[in-house]
Amino acid sequence: MKIERLSQDKIRIFLTYDDLLERGIQKDDMWREIPKVHELFSEMMDQAYTELGFDASGGPLAVEVFALPAQGMVVIVTRGKVTAGAEDRLGEDDEETDEDIYEMEVTMEQSDVVMYAFRDFEDVIDACKQLKNAGLTEDGRLYSYNGKYILVLEPANIESSRNNAVIAVLAEYGEATSVTYAMLEEYGKVIMASGAVREVCTYF
């Protein structure tokens, strides 16, 4: 589980599927109101407080969950403002604070786009050559974001039977990224807009 602060009132949590499995949670459980998911959320908020000093108590939280194929889930938590009435209620009865703390508005989004981050361009070259030589794909878009290179592949352009092989190659040279595609589109810099695997192999 990786937690990072995006702003004073917003954090991003990256959960791998291993993180979920360790807690007996299936991917689809994240859509459901079950005790295990509440326990996971409490654990995430405890860790956010310990690591970042992010205090989730005392106000409504907007929770966005993005499911990424083969990588895991990105959870973005935005802390809302506490109304005066809510403060009074919290003061009256501490036992009810849990309800107020996690007054969550959950938005789920599922993405089929595969994204992997690479620290060095050499790793991008090695991954692209292996993908091309194995006949897995020549497609993709390449971005620069936050000091890393991010290769984005659309599953529509990869035969489903080769999906696992593609991810195995990407995982060998890069790492699953917690960046959502929307953030990448907004803040990333496009290096190669299409045919990135082919282009990298041609020029490098």
From TrEMBL:
PANTHER family: ADAPTER PROTEIN MECA (PTHR39161), ADAPTER PROTEIN MECA 2 (PTHR39161:SF2)
InterPro entries: MecA_C_sf, Neg-reg_MecA
Organism name: Paenibacillus thailandensis
Family, similarity comment: Belongs to the MecA family.
Pfam families: MecA (PF05389)
Name recorded for this polypeptide: Genetic competence negative regulator
